[in-house]
Structures are given as C-alpha cells and as structure tokens.
Design goal:
mainly alpha; 7 helices; 0% strand
C-alpha cells in the first residue's frame, strides 16, 4: 500500500509556496531603491498635508461620480439596472421634472391673501400629487420590466422608487449627470 507515502508527498508539495520568480535583493540594493520619507516639520503641517490629500481624493471621486463611473458611485446608484433606469428617466421629459418649479409658484400662491386663490391652491396641489404618483407608478413599472427583460438576473427591488425620485429632480441637478439627452433611444 503506497497510499500513505503518496499522501505525504502531495501534502508536502501543497504546503510549499510558489517562488516569486526572482532572487531576493540584497539589503543595500533594497535601501538604494527606497525613497526617503520626508515627514512634515510639525503636527500642524502634517494635518494640513493630510487634509489636502483628502480634499484632492474627494474632488477626484466627485468628478468621477458626475461622469458616471461605477467605482465612484454610492451603492444605491451602482449596477446595470440602475444605469438603465437613469438612462430611461433621462431620455424623456416628464411633468415630474417641473415639479420643483411648480412648488415655488405654489409657495407664492399660498401666501397671497386672495380668497379665490386660497380656495384653488389645495385642489391644484391634489391634482399635481395625483399626476406625479401616476407618472411614478407608470415609470416604475416600465423600468422594472425593461431591467427584467435586458438583465434577467439583476434585482429589480427598489427600482420603481429610484426612477420616480430621479424623475422628480431638476435635470441639471441630477447626480450622476444624465448620459442621454431627451429624445434619445434607450
């Protein structure tokens, strides 16, 4: 029975790590290649340097997020399903897009002391809310169907609300920035 010998040799082989493919450098060579670290003179300078590095990293990440790069986006915006939802919402102009502008007008109307205006404002608000809810439901259903069709394994949970909330935002203020123009085919 040669099985124990084979087990011992295979175990010995599996425990040996692979080499790095080059000889270990001498200490003097390794030290020559290293660049010396120049520490800041004092704590205040070190903190300023750290803040500058952090600021640069944040601005780089923010610019990448605006461009729509996947690695820089928050978790709620990642994935092909979310990208499709954003593109679909951005490809058409909707009534919900102008909601914020209408809200400003409604705020001005609320403060007017005219009885006719005061009696019309609640009805206008109800109509606007119903239109937005209907548009959001239709949009969510359409986006979920498109994602299920194009990306069969992709989860569709939360896509309806994600799409509706993006549609409410003013187009210039949407984040990440729209990749498609109104009227483009998706």
């Amino acid at each position: 029975m040669g099985a124990p010998e084979e087990d011992a040799t295979s175990a010995a082989r599996s425990s040996v790590t692979a080499g790095k493919g080059r000889p270990t450098p001498k200490r003097s060579e390794a030290e020559r290649r290293r660049r010396p670290y120049a520490a800041p003179a004092n704590r205040k300078a070190a903190n300023q340097e750290y803040r500058d590095r952090q600021r640069g990293e944040r601005s780089r990440r923010y610019a990448a997020m605006q461009r729509g790069e996947e690695w820089a986006m928050p978790a709620k915006d990642r994935g092909p399903g979310r990208a499709l939802a954003r593109d679909y919402v951005d490809s058409k102009r909707r009534f919900s897009e102008y909601y914020m502008y209408g809200l400003i007008v409604l705020m001005i109307l609320v403060f007017l002391r005219n009885p006719l205006v005061q009696s019309l404002v609640p009805g206008i608000v109800i109509i606007i809310v119903l239109v937005m809810v209907g548009e959001g439901l239709f949009l969510g259903r359409k986006v979920r169907g498109m994602v299920a069709e194009r990306y069969p394994g992709e989860p569709t949970r939360g896509l309806a609300m994600y799409s509706a909330m993006r549609a409410i935002q003013i187009r210039r203020l949407r984040m990440p920035k729209p990749r498609v123009k109104p009227g483009d085919a998706i």
